[in-house]
Design brief:
Blueprint: H1 5-15, H2 18-28, H3 34-41, H4 65-77, H5 84-96, H6 125-137, H7 144-159, H8 165-177, H9 181-194, H10 213-216, H11 230-242, H12 259-279
Length: about 280
């Protein structure tokens, strides 16, 4: 099904927040990286972490692991993993991590601000996998926190009995990015024996909410494609093509709990859909 790029353009410019408009220009219209980096500064705190609703489901101003992960992923898109913002964010992560390198899922202080109901204090496995993945994807080396976190990530990936949806997403991101190719491919093979990807990664949220092949392995040629068959990827690409809405954007399948959250996520997932289609030869 052909994609209406003109409608997608209109949706982004009429709906997406500033940082996502600049991301759209960078990723899909040969735009510059500098405006993306400058837009991120508005979400940064003096301690180096990120907050202020950069993660649309967590709207407290204080620094938190989820928006800091989001920021590092965006800085990687901008080829800015060595920018001051990224260095300060990694320093903040090291400060709040435990001795084993693990961060809590969310830090105290968010409770009195609007947030999605699934944000509750708890173990930080998902966020730690994601942050380690983002640092490795950015080519970070000689980072003491990352060394500790990487060893923890290896242990949990190689021993987890029943990997869940978002855990699996960030485990795949870690295994795609970590430098040890041989060990990463062995871990992918081990996960393939433990995970049924035919009904990919239900996450236990609202009915129908699940992670799908491109959530786990967005780029062709990546190690994580050893977990996902090509036929599954092609079916998911067909579905993504069919899901463009009448207003030109895409939407999401997790809970919509506020108008602002819904609008902000739609800008993000519209960019995600277009990048998936482009990277996999459909755009």
């Amino acid at each position: 099904m052909p994609i209406d790029r003109s409608a997608a353009d209109t949706f982004i410019w009429s709906t997406a927040r500033l940082v996502d408009r600049h991301r759209y220009e960078l990723l899909l219209a040969d735009g510059a990286a500098a405006p993306v980096i400058e837009a991120l500064r508005g979400y940064r705190n003096s301690d180096g972490g990120f907050g202020h609703g950069l993660e649309p489901d967590l709207r407290c101003p204080g620094s938190q692991p989820p928006p800091t992960l989001y920021a590092l992923e965006i800085l990687n898109e901008a080829d800015a993993a060595d920018d001051e913002l990224a260095r300060d964010a990694r320093a903040w992560v090291a400060q709040v991590a435990g001795p084993d390198g693990v961060l809590p899922f969310v830090l105290p202080g968010f409770e009195s601000y609007p947030h999605a109901p699934w944000f509750e204090p708890g173990p930080g496995g998902i966020g730690t996998l994601g942050l380690a993945a983002a640092c490795h994807a950015g080519g970070v080396a000689d980072d003491e926190w990352l060394e500790r976190a990487t060893e923890w990530c290896w242990r949990t990936i190689e021993t987890a009995d029943e990997p869940g949806g978002y855990w699996l997403k960030y485990a795949c991101a870690f295994l795609d990015a970590v430098p040890d190719d041989e060990r990463a491919r062995a871990a992918i093979s081990s996960l393939a024996a433990r995970v049924d990807t035919a009904d990919v990664a239900p996450v236990g949220g609202i009915e129908g909410e699940a992670l799908r092949p491109l959530d786990l392995s967005p780029r062709p040629g990546s190690r994580s494609r050893g977990l996902i068959g090509d036929a599954e990827v092609q079916r998911h690409l067909d579905l993504v093509e069919s899901e463009q809405q009448e207003d030109g954007g895409w939407t999401f399948d997790w809970r919509a709990w506020s108008p602002a959250q819904t609008t902000e996520w739609r800008g993000n997932v519209t960019i995600r859909a277009l990048v998936w289609l482009r990277d996999n030869g459909r755009l």
